[in-house]
Structures are given as structure tokens and as C-alpha cells.
Amino acid sequence: MFENPIAKTLFNEAIYPIVLFSEKLHLLECNRAFCDFLGYTEQELRTLSISDYTHPDDNDTSMEHIKALLSEKKNNFTLRKKYVHKNGRFIPAQINVSRSKHPKTGKLVLLGQIKDLSDHQDLLENYRILVDYQTDLILALNKDFTIKYANPNYCKVFGLNAKEIAGKSFLPLIHQDDREKVVKSLQNLKAEPHETTHKERAKTTNGYRWFEWSNKAILKNGDISNIIAVGRDITEEYIAQENLQEASTRLKLATESGNIGIWEFDIEKNYLSWDERMYDLYGIPDNSFDNTYEFWKRSVHPLDIKDADEQVKLALAGEKDFVTEFRIITPDEEVKYIYSAATVLRDDNGNPGKMIGINYDITKNREAEQLTKEKNQQLRDSLGRIEHINKQLSIAKEKAEESDRLKSAFLSNMSHEIRTPMNSIIGFSSLLSPGMDEEKFNHFTSLIRGAGDQLLRIIDDIIDISKIESNQLALQLNYWPIADIISEVIEENRQHRKIKNNPDRDIIAVIPIEECKGHLYTDRIRVKQIFNNLITNAIKYGGTENIEIGLNCSNSVNQEYVEFYIKDKGPGIPEDMVEAIFDRFTQLQNDIAHDGTGLGLSITKGLTELLDGTIRVESTAGQGSTFYLKFPLFINVQTQEKPQVKQDNGGKNYLKDKVVYIAEDDPASLFLLTEILEPTGCQIERGADGVELIHMVQEKKPDIILLDINMPFKNGYEAAREIREMGLSIPIIAQTAYAMPEEQKKILLAGCYAYLPKPLDNNTLIAKMTELLLKSN
């Protein structure tokens, strides 16, 4: 079935079970994962029929789908079914089956791909067990409020059978006075946030009891499909609250005339309740009080809080009665003296359960008006310092949040940009198959190469912006003729597919290139990168019109400058985006989607400034954009022309019968190099590391060496130096994933003749090998 060994390997090593049947349902091929899935060897499987390892409950349905496929009523189907393992256990799975033709015989074949759902089934069972053993009451309701599921504790509390109540309403259990509010609570689930709570009385096996329910709507296509309700018995809490309310009512009459505030503190629950007078004393609205002991402590004067807290602890320990005085600070910064007394309520074992007490304002009896003003001023000073600290903390918090936002934006953008070409590489690679139409095969491989180039550009962008921002970008400065730079930039960008595929569109030099006099003192590669970024943007965003490139010269304080411009007639830049166009990750939003990291113009600006230049943009929405680059101009510079050496092998293959040593520890990279070089007829010897390479060289000297840098035991640097120390002048080409200029310099200093960064270009590799072989001869 598989003539291509790569396809055969991919089939056998796939992580999902894959199987191929003839139209008579005889097993043709199966991969290792399919054998592991069922526990049989391939030989055993060939003696079995599909029914032998299909669960009896699913056999008829499975065969009906297969018959429909064979009769060409359908092209494929997906089915959930249970398989029978060799050891007898059942395996839940999902199978996708499609119909195809055998590439040799032309006969009908069935291809099945299986996904094991065992983990999914176990997870559902765990959730079921978790719900069944909850002590809370749990209901799953249909959208008409009838019962779909009730957990065991619900059935126990109400003395019901789960099967008997399925499909029935729970409302008859609710006290008739509460039914209306229960229905209204459930009806309110239609509105955001689709969550409600309510309290109700319901008839249990022990009579009517109070319950509190939390309800959540499950939506499907915007409509309620189910309701999940979780309830708990709050009868004791409700009765206690009622009793407290009665006591509060009685005490209110007794304390209103005395201007006394009453409080109650539930120690176990850390719940502090106040009457209206307490709120008046403390000057706090009832909706801003969180009913905790800690909130009260925050209201106490800092100088009194330690003693006040100690008095509470002594009273709870039974060491003394709670009678004390302390100062409080109200929200309006008023200091009040409070007299407080309380009694501790204990259980049968003497453990404290609650404190009930009073607060009484004794400010007027304890301090004079002048003393109050002084204390208020001191408080204002203290609060001013606290406010300053809070502002500093707020500033620090905002900076941290901005840092997190930028980090998230970077990760999100990089994830999108990296996954996009990876999607094409992985997706189209998986579609390559033996016997594929040649035109489609070539198209897929072209798309894979294009995605690889895109991924490499993304990596280059990330490295560039990182080095620019950390001020670590090394520049190789020299004098370069402006005419040469402009000519190269134009010709390179004319190869862009949007220019090549549109004969009516071009990149035009507004002035003749030969009239571009003078030199730039610059890094040639980086200044071309600047021009290429701007022209590429103009190509992508500039519609179908020509792109103009031109220059103007000027003089400022005895220094001559040249200002280049790149002009397009695209949609332009909105006015509110002009200032942000050079920021990282900024891309214009319009009705056309463009790829890119959003780093291009940020890199362009950074490189321009590193090269002592400036960049600006003028744009009108709907009319196009013009980018201006300004650099120092140098006239009458004397440069030494380098002789042009033309390499021409006349089409001859100089690699035939040459001995080539490849030192590479990565099997995939080694396989790639072998595939590239074998058609040339050279003799290939392979070494997995630097140690093996040295042994091979000592035994027999090759014509040329391809050397990886990052290898175990002895890396490429060490191996190259050792070969040179032997006095050998064998051409060595370093091929490595290290792509930085400083790495290239280090590689050449180690003794390599040339350097090729990964990913390798086939033609470039063979050309460089031919060049070095010709020189060595």
C-alpha cells in the first residue's frame, strides 16, 4: 500500500490507531497504535473479523454504517462505539472511517482512524461520584423546571426515589407561600448573569425546614437548556436570626432614648452585627460595613487598638468582665471616646459563643474642644502620610499591570504569528501522501517552504527588537555608495509576489539611480533592512499603484544630509494612529488582513536611530503615505573597489566522487543533508559528534567537511581547531542554528572556511561546496 518509506513510517508511528480494510472487510494494514489499542499482534488481527473486537451492543450499528459506505451512500462516517480488548475489557472510542481507492489495484478500501475515549469516560464517572456524595442538595432541572436529576442527599432529605421523581415538578414540596418567589427566582435566570439565589420552606421527612438555593442556568445557543441548583438547610440559622430580631426590637425601645448603641459578635462565624445607633456612633453607612471584627478594629484609634483587642481576649478567656474605654476614628476623621461593656454567652462546656454589648459616646465628658482639634490635626497628618504611601503603591501597581499587559500582548501576538506558519507546515505536511497529484504535491511543498520562510522572518524580528532594546546590536560600518544601495533595494523588492504577479505595478526611482551621488557611512545590511521594511509595507498596504522611492539633499550646520522617501497611494494612516505607528505590535486595522508580528516599523525606527538617522511619516487617510529617512551624507569619499571574482563551473558537477564528511548529531538534519547531497554522486561518511569526526579524519582525509557546531562530547569549534592544528587545509563548512554575527565570526576564527545558517538552502549549500572545492584545487 505504501511505496514511500516516509509515508509508511508516518503511518506506523502515528499516535492514534489507524487501520485499512478491503471492501470485503479483510485487514490490509494497521499501525502499531491499533495493535496496542486492542492488545493483539497484527498476525492475530488478520485472523479476526471486525465483529470479534466490537462490543455486541454496537455491532449492528457499526455494520450498518460500513454497508452504507460500501454502497457509496456516503463517503465517510464518524461513530462512537465500544471495542473489546484482548483481555476482555471494553474500550469506549470514536472512529472516523472514509472510503478511498487502492493506488495500485484501484479497488475500494476503507481507512479508519480511532480515538480512545477511556479518559473522557473516567472523568464523567468521577464527576458523577463527586455529585452523588455531596452533602448539599443538588438538582438538575429541565427548562420547564421539572426534575432531570436529584442527588442522593436530596432524595434522602425529602424521602423520595430518584427514578420516580425524574420528569416531575419539585414545586409541590415547597410551602405554598413561597412557591411564587421560587418560580420568579428561576424565571430570572433568563437575564444576565443567569444566576439567582432564593430562600424557601420545603416539606421534608422531618416537616417544613428552611433552605437556601443557588441557581445557575446552562445555556445552549443563547437559550436555557438546563438549570443546576445547589441547596443547603439553614433552618437553625434562620430561627436564630428571627430570635435575634425579636431581641433587637425589645432592646431598641430601651436604648433609643439613652443614645446607646447595641452590638452582637458571633465568635465562631466572625460576624459582628450593629443596631442603627452603632452606625450613627461610628459614622458609617450600613452598606459599607462588612460585619467583621477586623472592620471594627480598623475603626479604633491606633493608640488604643492594642488595649481594646486585649480587653476582648481577656473577657473571652473569662479572666475579667468586658468594661473598657477607647477612641474611634470616624470616616470624617472625628475622634470619639467610647465607653463599652459586654457580656459573654457560653455553651454548656464554658466555651464562648457570642458577646453582646453596648457602646456609648462619652467624648464630651472626656476632653476639651482644643484637645479634640489637636488630635484631629495629628490624625490628618497621619492619614496624609498613609495617602501618600497609597498613591505610591497605586503607581507601582499601575506599572506592574502595564508590564503584565505588555507581556500578555507580546505572548499573544507571538503565539498567533508563530502558530500561523506552523499550522501550514504541520497541516500541509500531513496532507502529503504517496500517489498524490504532482501539481498538488508541488503546491503543498511550496506552501510549506513559504511558511518556513515566514517563521524565520518572525524569529529574526524577535531577535532584532530584543538586541535593539538591550543596546546589544553590533553594527558593521563602512562607506557605501547610495546608488548601489538604492539599486539593490529596488531589484530585490521587485521579486515580491505582489509586484511579480502584477505587471502594471512597479517600484520606481523618481530620479535616475546613476544621479544618486555620495556615500552613507552605515551598516549595509541593516540600512537595506530599513528600506526593505518600508517598501514591503508599501507593497502590502499600497493597493495596486506604483511605489515611488526618491531622495533630497540638504545642508545643516556644515553637515550635509540626504533624505530618502518611500511613497505609496494606499489607504493611508488614520490621524489617531500616526503617533503610534512606530510602537511595537501596532498594525493598522482595515478591511484587509495582513500578516506580521507588528514589530517591523518598531525595528525600522530603532535601526534608523542606531545609524544616526531619523524617520518620520506623512499620511492622509484615503490618499496614501510617505515615509522619510534622513541620514548624514558623505561626498568625495575614497573607497577601494573590491575585484569581482566570477565563479562559473559551466554546469559541471564538481561534487561527483568527492569524499564528504558530515558531522551532525541531529538525525533529522543528517537525513536532510544526505538527501540533498546523494544526487550529486559524492561519497558521504557520517559522524555523530566531534570525537567521531577527528577519528575519521585521522584514518582518511576527505575532500570537504560539513560541520555542525552544537554537538556532544566535542563541539564544532573544538573539532575545527583540532583539524587545523593537524596542519590540514581541508575545506570546512559550518552549518548551524546559531545565526548571530558574533557567532559567525567565532566560527570562522575556529578554522572554518564558510558559514551557512540553518535552515539550509539546497542550492546555496551545493554552490558553496563547489566554490570551496574549486579553490582548494
Question: Would you give an account of this structure?
Answer:
- Helix content is 41%, strand content 25%.
- By secondary structure, it is α+β, with helices and mostly antiparallel strands.
- Helix 21 packs parallel to helix 22 (716-725).
List keywords for this structure.
single chain, 777 residues, alpha+beta, Beta-Lactamase, 5 domains, 5-stranded antiparallel beta sheet
The CATH topology of the largest domain: Heat Shock Protein 90
Q: Alpha-carbon distance between the termini?
A: 48 Å
Principal-axis shape: extended
Q: Write the CATH homologous superfamily of the largest domain.
A: Histidine kinase-like ATPase, C-terminal domain
Provide the CATH top-level class of the largest domain: Alpha Beta
Major sheet: size, sense and barrel closure? Answer: 5 strands, antiparallel
Number of strands: 27
Average of pLDDT: 82
Structural class: alpha+beta
What share of residues are in beta strands? Answer: 25-35%
Total number of distinct structural domains? 5
Number of helices: 24
Contiguous runs where pLDDT drops below 50 for at least 5 residues: 589-594, 640-651
**Any idea what the CATH architecture of the largest domain is?**
2-Layer Sandwich
Strand ordering within the main sheet:
2-1-5-4-3
Rg on CA atoms, Å: 41 Å
Helix fraction, binned, reads 40-55%
Question: What is the compact description of this entry?
Answer:
With 777 residues, this protein is α+β, with helices and mostly antiparallel strands. 41% of the residues lie in helices and 25% in strands. Helix 14 (369-431) runs antiparallel to helix 15 (438-469).
